């Protein structure tokens, strides 16, 4: 469009041309984008006149009329202006000479000559007083209807632009909000029959047609099929009434895009040459989008160089790093749903991108399998993955020879994703990531609870479902305060419903109670203790060690601080967000239990059986895990600062983003086979990690970090 504008300006046209540029997308936030367009047109016409040093009388009048029309878009115009010259013949007759009407235009020069000759001054004064300039009041009402603007504007064009052309370029209309795009199209209709006024629209006709069709469906509402056929308004025929001449841009070939990339200023041919196929297949064949992608990659490369982020990478690791940087940037620009899912769970990226590369062996993550299959059903994403594989396979021998540990790949993935956050101009804060993980975990727990409660408490469920929907929406944004507020609100409403459910259970028919008693013998819970469990009241400092089993029970959100649950079977029980600070849990069986987001500060978990337990986001500050079994437990983002872990089994556990600062290990503390990322390694400071058992490649990374 800019190229076309420049050609129009430079061309030796039959009529003088003034061009006006309006970027609809930039005015998207205006209350009235229609008024913004009208103001832009008028202001550009005014600016063209204001740039003239010596204005003609016609140009002065045009300037004033354009100003009046601008003002009338907002409020009424009241002003005075000078009119014609009037001559008082009575006063002139008192003079010593006669003056004919034909001399009035040059009367000033004649008076000067008379004064030079010493003419009677009184006669001159009489003549001067006889000449007066008329004053008249101009009143222009505020424009109430767009037809008034159309008429006024048309009069201006007819009077002052008879032999000129005004060409108005409208760009990025298809990027505007639907209602704003329609508003601009309505405004354009005001100019359609104004001779000499030409509009050039740069649009994706499919997008605009879709917007019009959608709006049209809202307007006709519940009309029957016959009425709809009678009205017969579609996006296509709406545009036909506005656009007289169409020019369809030809499809850009991959070869043209490759040539365009290599011609970009500052382009490093050695670096980008190996990714040409990946870029052309991954980014839409649109020069603007290609340039945006190029600018993002160049920014990332500059950051990598300035921060020396690739220091210590082997040749094969550098190949993977650069490939990941390219493909992740494409994903952030073209696959929003997958991008957002990866930001919430980085493990998703690895199986999607690397699963078909047999020479890179990774541990299976069954919990991600379903999501991976879902995303790989997207053909465009699968094509992108194929191009990434084609790039990586060029270096297969090199990568095989180095036998890169999985943990090193994990570290590169984390760094590339973090680096990719500069796309929006800022690095995503850790606080937001933590909140997003917390919100995701709470949403999952809430949905499970809602499912278990069935059709009970429909009104409360509706409130919770609305909060969950808002929380999902907030997960896509970058507002920590909003997410915090929604998490708090969701916890509160869920707790209310769970308490109501517990109270309802007590009033249920005997048959239901009998059924429940088959699972849990409420005779075990007598008096105050039984009421507390059923009503979800505080059990702080209670001795529950005599209870044989709490298997499968839901104690989420309950207060169990300093309670004694030693040796109790809590297999598959739910303690989500429960308060267990200072609780005595020695030898307690938590196999398969949910302790996510639970608070376990100073808890005694000696010899506790925590195999396959969900401890995501749990807080275990100064907890005692001596000889505890946490094999295959999920401790993602858990806080284990200053914990005692002598003899603890952490085999196969998920220890991504775990804080182990100041933790105390011994030679029997076993981390072999655990999933450990660079964030966890960064959070080993102050611990005696040297004596624990680690996988060799993990130990190597820890030593690199702490210079041992």
Please explain how this structure is put together.
This protein is mainly α and 708 residues long. Among the domains are: 204-242, no CATH class; 254-424, no CATH class; 430-505, Up-down Bundle (Substrate Binding Domain Of Dnak, Chain:A, Domain 2); 540-708, Pectate Lyase C-like (3 Solenoid). The protein contains 29 helices and 7 strands. Helix 23 packs parallel to helix 25 (480-507). The longest helix is centred in the C-terminal third of the chain and has 28 residues, at 480-507. The protein is elongated. The two termini are 61 Å apart. Residues 95-109, 423-430 and 509-526 have low confidence and may be disordered.
In short:
The protein is mainly alpha-helical. Helix content is 50%, strand content 6%.
Rg calculated over all Cα atoms: 39 Å
- List segments where confidence is low: pLDDT < 50 over at least 5 consecutive residues: 95-109, 423-430, 509-526
Q: Percentage of helical residues?
A: 40-55%
How is the largest sheet built, in terms of strand order?
A: 1-4-5
User: Helical stretch count?
Assistant: 29
Question: What is the terminal-to-terminal distance?
Answer: 61 Å
Arithmetic mean pLDDT: 76
Name the features:
single chain; 708 residues; mainly alpha; Substrate Binding Domain Of Dnak, Chain:A, Domain 2; 3-stranded parallel β-sheet
